[in-house]
Amino acid sequence: MKRPALGSVRVKTTLTAVAVVTLALLAACAGLLGVIHHGLVGSAEDTALTRARAVADKTARGRLVERLSVPDGEDSLLQVVTHDGRILAAGDNLTGRGPVADFAPTEDHTHAARDIDLALPPDPTPRPFRLVALAARDMDGRDVTVYAGTSLSTARHTESLLLTAMAPGIPLLLLLVAAVTWHSTGRSLRPVEAIRAEVAEITERDLGRRVPVPATRDEIARLAGTMNATLDRLEQSMDRQRRFVADASHELRNPIAALRAHVEIAIAHPDLLQPPDLLDDVIRVQRLADDLLLLARLDAGEHTRPQPLDLAARARAVVRRRPAGRVPITLQAPDPAPVLGHRDRLDRILDNLLDNAQRHARSTVTLTVETTPDQRTVVLTVHDDGAGIPAADLEQVFTRFTRLDAARSRDAGGAGLGLPIARDIATAHGGTLTAHPGPGATLELRLPLTPHPTD
Questions:
Q1: Which residues make Cβ contacts (< 8 Å) with residue 439, sequence separation at least 6?
Q2: Distance from CA of residue 151 to its chain's centroid?
């Protein structure tokens, strides 16, 4: 793979993973240090408070001595101070010093605690202590404050050791996370790069190629499968387009050639050409051009604004305006058949189906419009008593430029676009158009029923 750009998914994923892990580690370290600090300081405060209460008890019973015994030597502090700042008693390490602190418990608390830094001889370096101030009274009822402190040096040292131990580990862990994320992301994106490279090589003349589908069965595999399915549809669409252009060119060649011949005859020998012959050729070319234009619009997915219509009423209107054909049409549409569609397009379906039926019928054509018992579908059926459609050709009749009767002339048989156009219009309306085997030929149109018909 090429070297990823700064804004690539691989770089962004790695940076995001490192950032998330960094925040998580910092939060974990801060939480761990906070718990350790709280525990050590709380333990030191509890020890100091216990000693302060013992001294307060001695003070209340009059057993207070001037020099207080400090169990841990200079690592602990003990001092009893009156409200005016006079020292009643103190440990050896505070002998000769003034009050170790100036804070006292509030009225609603019996004790208060603070962290202080205090230098004790002979070391001039200040050391940390957790100092507790406890309110007490001597045997005469006078208010005094007992100060007791416990060294925090051990707690600070423990915190320092923890920081020292974690400091080099965090960068190493982040490097490991970055390396693992970079490698795993690269492996995950390798199929994507292969797909991209393959798609870049596909052209309109080489639509048979497909992208590789990884065996991982993950989202990338599904993406590759979807792309191959899209390429299949695109290839089929291009094949249909090529066949359509080839068939259209072939179908237009004969009527245009005939029209040209008639025009040349009209120019050279005006008395030999009958005007209806020239007009028939022009009409035939015009109809074929209209059919091709309509197919192009349907293929392009042209959207028309549908409206509620009564398909039974449309069937009656189409039958009334049609000229009398070779075979009469029997209409059976007693009840309304409401559908949602485009008036001209639905009329085009009716005309195409009736044209096809009259072309092949022997004596009768029956047009039926009805609704299904569940009142969800409108069914329009056109049946003729002709030779029928072979079972093997029930779908072939909807292929463009298909004429099953090879013996009939092109003028009588048409261009083979009527039924394909009718099916495309039916599909665009959310319906279906199917053919059924004999006796005779039966074409069935099904459209969704709409509850509010108008016409």
A1: 385, 388
A2: 60
* Closest C-alpha to 412, from 258, 246, 280, 252: 280
Q: What is the pLDDT of residues 110-153, one digit of tens each?
A: 889 999 998 887 788 898 999 999 999 888 888 889 999 998 98
The dihedral region occupied by 91, where left means phi > 0, alpha psi between -120 and 50, and beta the remainder, is: beta
Give the pLDDT confidence of 221-251 residue by residue, as tens digits: 888 888 888 888 887 777 777 777 776 676 6
Angle at 447 between CA 443 and CA 448, to 5 degrees: 155
Residue 80: which of 160, 10, 146, 167 has the closest Cα? 146
From-to residues of CATH 1.10.287 in the chain: 219-299
Compute the distance between CA of residue 234 and CA of residue 339 in angstroms, rounded to an integer. Answer: 32
d(CA 442, CA 422): 14
Q: What is the pTM of this model?
A: 0.51
Which fold is adopted by the domain 307-448? Heat Shock Protein 90 (3.30.565)
Ranges of CATH 3.30.565.10 domains, the chain: 307-448
The CATH class of the 219-299 domain is: mainly alpha
Q: Choose among 128, 138, 151: nearest CA to 51.
A: 151
Peptide bond into 121 cis (omega under 30): no
